[in-house]
Amino acid sequence: MSLNTLPDAEAQCAALAELIRPHLLPETRLVGIHSGGVWIARRLCQLLGLPEEIGMIDVSFYRDDFGEKGLHPQIRPTSIPFDVDGRPLILVDDVLYTGRTTRAAINELFDYGRPASVKLAVLADRGGRELPISAEFCPWQVDLDKKEELVLETSASGQLQWRRANHA
Amino acid sequence: MRNPQLNANGELNHLLSIDGLPREVLTHILDTASSFLEVSDRDVKKVPLLRGKSVFNVFFENSTRTRTTFEIAAKRLSADVINLDVQRSSTSKGETLLDTVDNLVSMHADMFVVRHASSGAPYLIAEHLHRTGRDDVHVVNAGDGRHAHPTQGLLDMYTIRHFKKDFSNLTVAVVGDILHSRVARSDIQALGTLGAAEIRAIGPQTLLPTAIERMGVRVFHDMREGLKGCDVVIMLRLQNERMNGALLPSAGEYFKCYGLTPEVLALAKPDAIVMHPGPMNRGVEIHSEVADGPQAVILSQVTFGIAVRMAVMSILAGN
Q1: Is A78 at the interface with chain B, CB within 8 A?
Q2: How many angstroms away from the CA of B317 is the closest CA of chain A?
Q3: Interface check A81 vs B, CB under 8 A
Q4: What are φ and ψ of residue B19, in 5° steps?
Q5: What is the pLDDT confidence band of residue A112, given thresholds at 50, 70 and 90?
Q6: Exposed site from A117, B2, B60, B154, fewest CB < 10 Å?
Q7: Which domain holds residue B283?
Q8: CATH code at A83?
């Protein structure tokens, strides 16, 4: 399908928060995947009244395409400011596509300890999975062509917004 | 002319020297290293980036410390590390350097970390790999003769950036035996590329290379004069064999003129940091009170060194 009008990403964050709310435990923490996932996790924290400390993951060191693509030119440090052992975690990303980023993030999380559970929350599920991974919490399902790309950005005023791009 | 360190796409294929590397390449390595720093604080101090790769530490000259930090860095990237004490094996049996390399390539080496007493040995290996069509095998120079020690230069830059943030208004002094020091050359080149405001070389005439001014440094023979207003003081190790040779009267006199004591350090800026590549000679180039004092960042250099070497190895392996 083609997307002429893109949904309001901020409203989707609010919808995502409501999907998550019934499943929150007192010790639940969010872990955002750089960059989009971190932005969304910050929004969710406010909306859900969770402690401000969120985990941030850059999966560059765990990607399965390192052999083909090499190291990502810009890597941000991973930071998990809480104890992972025995804790319920919600992994947050902007777009769920092949599932490879999620796989890398789960592997990385387990190098910090053994969480009680890991659930996945995304703003958009665009189909095209290559691994047995699905999102527990997702307000928007959309089928996109391989050529199409969905990018989450922050506007000049700091609002989250979607942009559509086409691969060459 | 082809830059032997870069591949056809201008990406880093070998790390042989700081000389000839653009600022963006240096900055990229330092930025990447800051992400690796956190890996060493985890429960599981390992990322799977170089899983299944074989890194050969080929040391034709002794160095426990440098070899160990490269080994730790490679292991934290999940590579298999093979340490070769070539000095005591192949070479002593008469095998040439390039024959040793060919043998190791046949054992499916992915990367060589090379230390050699002869300047240019890692370059010779890299050129040989290029000629034999093995550009997929990477070379890291871990110190060659008096030429270069690029990972030490990079970790020194990482340390300076960590404590001082910006190079553009820094005055940095390199003190001691610059003539024989590959660390000094790599540091001076890196500081120049990264845009340090002023680089000073402090040492006796006999331990400074001729025409060192051409590297863009100000020369001082008087340590007190040279340290005035410095933000960073990099002390160099005075090697044992120099202490009583023709170049110096004695270790005692050297310490008197060029040893870093608390009194001399007080001439630098109050927040100046003191660095040393190790191993230190207490009482020869540095006073214990300074080495253990609040301005010394010598042990931070060691920690940062592992992250910087992880960054170098993973950037090379990915290109």
Answers
A1: yes
A2: 7
A3: no
A4: -60, 130
A5: very high
A6: B2
A7: 150-301
A8: 3.40.50.2020
Range of the domain at A69: 9-166
Residue with structure tokens 């960590």?
B162
ipTM above 0.85, yes or no: no
Q: Please tell me the distance in Å from A123's CA to the nearest CA on chain B.
A: 27
pLDDT higher than 80, residue A4: no
Assess contact for B304 and B277: CB atoms under 8 A.
Answer: no
**Number of domains comprising chain A:** 1
Considering the domain boundaries, does residue A3 fall inside one?
no
Tell me the per-residue pLDDT of B143-155, one tens digit each, with 9 for 90 and over. 999 999 999 999 9
Tell if the CB–CB gap between A61 and B314 is shorter than 8 Å.
Answer: yes
pLDDT band at B245 (very low <50, low <70, confident <90, very high): confident
Q: Does B174 fall in a domain?
A: yes
**Closest partner residue to B314 among A71, A78, A79, by Cβ?**
A71
* Selected residue with higher pLDDT from B205 and B90: B205
Q: Is residue B211 located within the same domain as residue B293?
A: yes
Nearest-angstrom CA–CA distance, B34 and A77: 7
Residue A168 pLDDT exceeds 70: no
Indicate if B139 and B196 belong to the same structural domain. Answer: no
Quick check: B185 pLDDT over 80?
A: yes
Q: Evaluate whether residue A59 is within a structural domain.
A: yes
Phi, psi dihedrals of residue B171, rounded to the nearest 5°: -110, 120
Exposure string (b/e) for B37-73, b if CB count within 10 Å is 16 or more? bebeebeeebbbbbeebbbbbbbbbebeebbebbbbb
Whether B228 and B279 map to the same domain: the answer is: yes
Chain A residues in contact with B32 by the CB 8 A cut-off are: 71, 75
The tally of domains found in chain B comes to 2
More confident residue, A62 or B87: A62
Considering the domain architecture, whether residues B160 and B243 belong to the same structural domain is answered as: yes
